[in-house]
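User: Teach me something about this protein's shape.
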Amino acid sequence: MNSSALDYLLELQQTIDSRRNASTEHSYTAQLFAAGPSRIAQKVGEEGVEVAIAAVQADGPRLKAEAADLIYHLLVLLRINDLSLEEVVEELARRRAGKG
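Assistant: First, the predicted structure itself:
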């Protein structure tokens, strides 16, 4: 992943944070936060299934779109649990170093 892709994910995380307390009338992200962690987790599950189906069907454009949805919902789920993308990356790095 190039640095601009990572920068974009970090920017998306900041956008998600900024919309956490926005009006639910105008923000899907705010609606998700208002619905709570169970609903967000459900969306992550739904998107994960859609990713898997698109992959099995070898539908590249749909797979890309569903993967984007999954990443977005996963970031929202992390944030409602006070976790960050950086913490996930640190966990991956720890595992790569053989400490997990």
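Now, about its shape. The first helix runs from residue 3 to 19. Residues 3-96 form a domain with the Helix Hairpins fold (CATH 1.10.287.1080). If you'd like, I can walk through any region in more detail.
User: That's plenty for now, thanks!
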